[in-house]
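request received
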Amino acid sequence: MKRPNLLGICCNWSPWTCLNAAGRTNLQLPPNLRIIRVMCIGRINQALILKAFEYGADGVILLECRDEDCRYGPGPEVGHSNVQLVRSLLDLLGIDQQRLVERSFEAHEKDRMVAELWEFAERIDAMGANPAKPRQEREAV
Amino acid sequence: MDSVRITKIIRDNALYQCLECGKCSAACPRMLAGKEYSPRLLAQKLISERDDEAFIESSVWECLTCSLCQERCPSGVDISRVILEMRALLAAEKGLKGYRAHDGALHSVGRGP
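response:
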């Protein structure tokens, strides 16, 4: 099977600092993971997460700051409630809820971040393709 | 170094508000005197690269705590307060005394001829 498409939505602050640090120390990230940088996870709404699944993502991971570290205020809390709501929708759509993950990091936790990303990639790999994907994409190997 | 306590110091003093503009480094009298010293880099290392203990330790003890960095900081981060708390942390952890500050200059005056 083709490798699953993974999408990471990454907050510009603590998680992005982690990613930078991981890059500087040459830590390997899952090759099929694409990262989109946003200023804050609170900026992402439910429609954007669902859009990712609609366009054929097999797993989406939200990388965010810890609740008390948000540079703007309520960003991660907005993220939590969005994830809750999108998860209930995913259930209705027949997509496994485990395909949407959120993780929060402090700026120095690069090793934990890389470990979590690999764990996420392996879990989605084991789950296989997203059943709600457009058929052409599912059949293209 | 105790990562949990460093995180607490960072949160208490809102060090995450640092924009890396470098005004603190530009204002720092140590920097103006030509020493290799940068409050901005210290803040960055505390936030993201805590494994560089040698750098953090030397920077923390070299600071003059003149508070000029805090005066100039557009985000209102009190770096000298962070440094004082870091000194307390390092002193407690490694059994050091306050006279490590300022490269031991004060201590050498107090010792007499």
